[in-house]
Amino acid sequence: MTEYWVISAPGDKTCQQTWDTLNNATKSGNLSVNYKFPIPDLKVGTLDQLVGLSDDLGKLDTFVEGVTRKVAQYLGEVLEDQRDKLHENLMANNSDLPTYLTRFQWDMAKYPIKQSLRNIADIISKQVGQIDADLKVKSNAYNALKSNLQNLEKKQTGSLLTRNLADLVKREHFILDSEYLTTLLVIVPKSMFNDWNANYEKITSMIVPRSTQLIHQDNDYGLFTVTLFKKVVEEFKLHARERKFVVREFSYNEADLAAGKNEITKLVTDKKKQFGPLVRWLKVNFSECFCAWIHVKALRVFVESVLRYGLPVNFQAVVMVPARKGGKRLRDVLQQLYAHLDHSAHHHGSAAQDNAELAGLGFGQSEYYPYVFYKINIDMVDKVAA
Fold first, then answer.
1. Which residues pair with 32 in a beta bridge?
2. Cβ proximity of 311 and 44 under 8 Å
3. Residue-wise pLDDT tens for the chain (386 aa)?
4. Cβ atoms within 10 A of the Cβ of 195, count?
């Protein structure tokens, strides 16, 4: 799992200077690979608005990430035996996810920066809410189709006690259109074939002698026919059950049998028809959700930076890829660089350093870093597999 840290630090004389200082500090020991995270000049609004928005953006962040992962997970389910291709199908704006994040550019067309921060958050909330609602409808319809098909396929291949018998029997196995006689299908355990053949004519009266025939057998059971008078059918069923022979309810009707076979063919065709458009929809809307999620992160970095560092807006946002197993050392370096930014850091610094899992600054938390910090895990595939 590759973990990304998004941080912001106040601009020195220039933001470039902040960037250079951070880069130089983390270059020693190859602690991280850093990328600028460009956030445009957004409308600041009032302090009260920013404080209220900060909390709401936290909830929006959780919601959008949740929908993004849900879309990714469902795409994995739909791909079924092609699930190993899930990773290559998860793209954001035609880029792989690390590239989109590390080369992030604000989408001015979707999220106009002349709008207030609240309006931009509302645009994202409505957009992702609609995708979430559409996903429920599409997944319910496709899952119902898949479930019906699986149930029918199970009936084609299961035990003789439960499976569909239509593809095992033929017209000549039955006495049809007789006023008095009928043919039943009986499931007999393999260990009792001799018992059946020796005794089936004695189960009741009025059974046609030598009328049984073994049509099909699986590992455990055999499917036999027996012809008898209609008037003793219920009595035969009762006494057959006492001897551990199971009469399957079955009426030979060619129109019904053809309809059953057509139903499977129709479901297979429908599933194939829906598969392509559904995969395309999931890919497109995964991209929409993921891009929206990173824009929410950018909004959060902007709002928290203004609240933390004040006006005029002057901060440098950075995406960092910590070296493997280097999180603790990187945290120490960041602490040394930015401890002066916040007095509370002196009280909480050591605890914060030990807790590299802290999920970001939020006002009201007992522990936070002296710089704005968010962690991003973009590995959707691992999450899905789990």
1. 322
2. yes
3. 678 999 999 998 899 999 999 999 998 788 999 999 999 999 999 999 999 999 999 999 999 999 999 999 999 999 998 988 899 999 999 999 999 999 999 999 999 999 999 999 999 999 999 999 999 999 999 999 999 988 887 777 778 988 888 878 999 999 998 999 999 999 999 999 999 999 999 999 999 999 999 999 999 999 999 999 999 999 999 999 999 999 999 988 877 776 667 778 888 899 999 999 999 999 999 999 999 999 999 999 999 999 999 999 999 999 999 998 888 999 999 999 999 987 554 444 444 444 433 334 444 444 579 999 999 999 886 544 43
4. 14
User: Distance between CA 337 and CA 322 in Å, rounded?
Assistant: 16
Q: What CA–CA distances, in Å, run from 245 to 220, 259, 358? A: 13, 29, 65
Distance CA 103, CA 290 (A): 14
Q: Which two tokens stand for residue 44?
A: 């600041």
Q: Residue 312: is the preceding peptide bond cis (ω within 30°)? A: yes
With H, G, I as helix, E, B as strand and everything else as coil, classify residue 385. Answer: helix
| Residue 174 phi, psi dihedral angles, 5° rounding | -120, 150
Give the predicted TM-score (pTM) of the model. 0.76
